[in-house]
Write a structure and sequence with these properties.
Nucleotidyltransferase, domain 5, alpha+beta
Length: 495
């Protein structure tokens, strides 16, 4: 009997991964390629769309070649993507008109501010579930249109442009320009999609100067998005049968399928997400509401908080400050730090995300003393990751009215046992770390495999997990967390 394999593609901020899964759901092989982080003198962050597409095709080619799997045994693929990174390209030729604006980039903040001053912020939140912010693609798309001048705006008015997120760019390119599609999870993160009516909101699109005719067709997350042979690699075309934003992919891959289940992805930034079931709850505590997915014809909603700098703090220590040579050093140094040192790092390098939403806040080091050395600084950098995630978890707990007793986590930094134990302590919750870092790609791969009949729902029980339990005294926890809150308050500008 012919074997059937599923490929998961994770197109993330730093690079592109391709993963190969067998019929048992085992990860057989992974390949990755980094892409350039293009930062100009203004601090704008961009990606080369053509480079991302080339790398996507190349990772799959390398994956298949190195695995020894017969190309005809590849049954389908799922795609996850960096969600808010925003692209514009010609609908007829597929040529990008600009480099993609990366989710971290704040160049469109003036547009978001302009719309806020017009008094539309609450209207937007009530329709989309999202706080008005240049973080989301709506303002980025408006910037891309404005930056191209009258000619570009005329082409947009004629429906000749694509304004999309990275998933829709990859679907478009992989299908040879035949399909221009996104899924419900990615659509809900644009700030242009009405999460109640489940369609592009024409009024809100109008506020940003965007014609819905330039937006992608929205499909169920486990639908068929088109067919591809990866530019002749495969002897036949296979279906792209699962598309999810990276964080939604992680939620699905973690098996957080029931209301109240929560996960946190530790990447360059972080996304903390709680499944809240089939009825939306609009946050009053600084997190946002969006769609988890639409799978099996059913919509699930989530509460989500996003952080700009979590894993990126470690990169900053290594590349910019050069006080460590590898991320692996941080755990040992943190354990060597003097316990009494009260240093806090607030990593607001490009403002603060959830639950504060202060784009003007700037990073600060608070509480430095004469005993503060490298070890204490590294510990503060690790701990600020856990503090930020706890802020979001607490906000969600209050919105949903349920205590959070368990946090499912994924991403590279979860291999740091100091960070994971501290996370458990400061959040006062169990932390479950799976034996795979690849949850963002696992989720859409699972969705594709389920839809194509390669496996059933028992697939969610395949992950092995390491468990951390809180072991910090209550008084110490409260003292440390109060110190963090005080440090954050010192950088907040929107009080």
């Amino acid at each position: 009997m012919e074997k059937r394999y599923i490929i998961g593609i994770d197109q993330s901020t730093q690079g592109t991964k391709a993963l190969l899964f067998d019929e048992e759901g085992h990860l057989l092989r992974r390949t990755d390629l980094p892409h350039r982080q293009i930062v100009n003198e203004k601090g704008w962050v961009s990606h080369d769309l053509n480079e991302i597409y080339r790398n996507t095709v190349q990772t799959v080619k390398t994956l298949v070649a190195e695995s020894g799997v017969a190309p005809e045994e590849i049954a389908g693929i799922g795609i996850s993507n960096q969600r808010e990174t925003t692209a514009i390209w010609d609908k007829a030729t597929g040529e990008p008109l600009e480099e993609a604006i990366v989710w971290q980039c704040g160049r469109a903040s003036g547009i978001a501010q302009e719309i806020a001053e017009q008094g539309h912020a609450e209207e937007i939140r009530e329709a989309t579930g999202l706080q008005l912010s240049a973080y989301f693609p709506a303002a980025k798309m408006a910037w891309l249109l404005r930056n191209g001048g009258e000619e570009r705006q005329k082409r947009a008015a004629d429906g000749k442009l694509c304004l999309g997120t990275i998933d829709s760019w990859l679907v478009y390119k992989l299908t040879g320009g035949k399909e221009y599609r996104t899924d419900y999870s990615n659509a809900s993160r644009t700030q242009l999609f009405n999460i109640f009516d489940l369609k592009w909101d024409e009024e809100i699109c109008g506020l940003f100067g965007i014609d819905p005719a330039n937006m992608a067709e929205v499909k169920d997350s486990d639908a068929c998005f088109g067919e591809t042979d990866f530019e002749g690699l495969l002897p036949h075309k296979i279906q792209i049968h699962g598309v999810l934003g990276d964080s939604h992919g992680s939620l699905f891959g973690q098996g957080c399928l029931q209301p109240g289940m929560i996960k946190s992805t530790y990447g360059t930034g972080s996304s903390i997400m709680m499944n809240i079931g089939e009825k939306p709850i609009l946050s009053t505590h600084g997190v946002v509401t969006s769609l988890a997915w639409k799978i099996g014809g059913k919509v699930n909603y989530v509460l989500e908080g996003n952080l700009n700098y979590t894993g990126a703090v470690i990169t900053w220590l290594k590349d910019d400050l050069q006080i460590i040579s590898s991320p692996g050093e941080t755990g040992k140094l943190a354990k060597e730090a003097i316990q009494e040192d009260s240093l806090y790092l607030v990593p607001a390098f490009s403002g603060l995300g959830a639950p504060y939403w202060d784009s003007e806040a700037r990073a600060s080091v608070v509480g430095m003393s004469r005993i503060t050395r490298k070890a204490e600084f590294v510990r503060a950098a690790l701990e600020c990751i856990a503090y930020q995630i706890t802020d979001v978890v607490q906000a969600m707990s209050e919105d949903a009215g349920v205590p959070v007793k368990e946090l499912r986590v994924d991403g590279g930094p979860t291999r740091n046992d100091y960070l994971m134990q501290f996370q458990s302590n400061i959040a006062d919750a169990g932390v479950l770390v799976p034996d795979s870092e690849e949850l963002s790609a696992i989720g859409p791969a699972y969705a594709a495999g389920l839809q194509l009949g390669v496996w059933d729902e028992s697939i969610f029980g395949k992950l092995n997990r390491v468990s951390y339990k809180p072991d910090m005294e209550v008084e110490k926890r409260e003292q440390k967390y109060a110190g963090w809150k005080k440090a954050v308050a010192s950088v907040i500008t929107n009080k």
